[in-house]
Specification:
mainly beta, 2 helices, Immunoglobulin-like
Length: 338
């Protein structure tokens, strides 16, 4: 190469203008920073982003676990090659609660995620609540129950109730002193419509903004009058000649359009008679679908009514009813032992 040409190439390289030699841009570099201005429902999240030469955007993720679930709005970090400080405010937070957060930045070369950090909001955690069962249900009243943990602050609570999960009615608010121990509470609802399904839940509050609702529960007031249940029964076999003598009594109770959750409970009572003498009683629980089935075994022949090595028994079968269905008896069944 001629001396003049060598000098020209050297000058161009020194100036960094040879095509294809310029440094390539890369995905952004991010650092999750600290927090500031931590209040009961908001906090400022900090971090740093280096765009590494490409137009870059960033946002913060936060949530109660490392699954996060909430994000800030996206903002630009520019297209420079130096780290820039960034911040966003997370709002709508729960007081006295620990959160996870991290910084995320994206440019045309890819996405970068900062390390997970945590912070805790100021104030007391919201009251903890659990909706309990309804007790003392009648045709026009019911006592609704629940549990409230004030979690360190004076707490008011009430029960919401109604025909749907929109509720629409509530009990008079009551107050619990600040504490950290769960407290069982209850209130009685009156003037209810018979034979009606009601939704209800407990709600507890710190002040007027920190609200903790319990899960929805239901109860049904007793019909007035109670409809008489229908009952179908069959006992097999009709005759058992070999000891031990076993018989299975099965059937179902007609719930008369009452939801099975309420109607399908109670007991079937089976009484065995030889003539007029009762020789045994057998109880069968009603299943959740209003069916029943029970097996009863006689180890030996009863002495009462034995004729030619056989005993003929009459079975009286009765459903005892509950708050939603009136008791009812089935037609007698007949079986033979031996």
């Amino acid at each position: 190469m001629k001396p003049r040409l060598k000098l020209l190439v050297a000058a161009v390289v020194a100036a960094g203008t040879v095509t294809g030699v310029a440094a390539a841009a890369s995905s952004p570099s991010v650092v999750t920073g600290s927090t500031s201005a931590a209040h009961s429902t908001s906090v400022v999240l900090h971090g740093a982003v280096n765009p590494n030469g490409r137009s870059t955007t960033y946002f913060f993720q936060w949530g109660l676990t490392t699954a996060y679930g909430a994000v800030t709005t996206t903002r630009s970090a520019g297209a420079g090659t130096k780290s820039v400080a960034v911040q966003r405010t997370a709002t709508g937070l729960i007081p006295g609660t620990r959160y996870h957060y991290r910084l995320v930045a994206t440019n045309g070369s890819g996405q970068s995620v900062g390390a997970d950090h945590t912070f805790k909001t100021a104030g007391h955690p919201p009251p903890a609540v659990a909706t309990g069962p309804a007790t003392g249900v009648s045709s026009t009243t019911a006592t609704v129950t629940g549990v409230v943990n004030p979690n360190g602050a004076d707490t008011t609570y009430e029960f919401q109730f109604g025909l749907t999960t929109a509720y629409g009615m509530q009990t008079t608010a009551a107050t619990l002193a600040a504490g950290s121990t769960p407290v069982s509470v209850s209130q009685t609802l009156t003037g209810l419509t018979p034979g009606t399904v009601f939704h209800y839940r407990i709600v507890a509050l710190h002040g007027s903004t920190v609200v903790s609702p319990g899960i929805d529960q239901v109860f049904m007031t007793h019909p007035s009058p109670r409809p008489k249940a229908g009952i179908t029964v069959r006992t097999k076999p009709g005759t058992d000649r070999s000891r031990p003598y076993s018989f299975t009594t099965s059937g179902s109770v007609n719930r008369r359009n009452i939801p099975g959750t309420f109607a399908c409970n109670g007991t079937i009572t089976v009484k065995y008679f030889s003539g007029r003498k009762r020789i045994g009683t057998f109880l069968i629980p009603l299943a959740g679908n209003c069916t029943f089935s029970g097996k009863n075994t006689f180890r030996k022949l009863p002495r009462a009514g034995r004729v030619n090595g056989q005993v003929h028994l009459t079975m009286q079968i009765r459903y005892g009813g509950n708050g939603y269905l009136a008791p009812v008896s089935a037609r007698p069944e007949h079986i033979t032992l031996g």
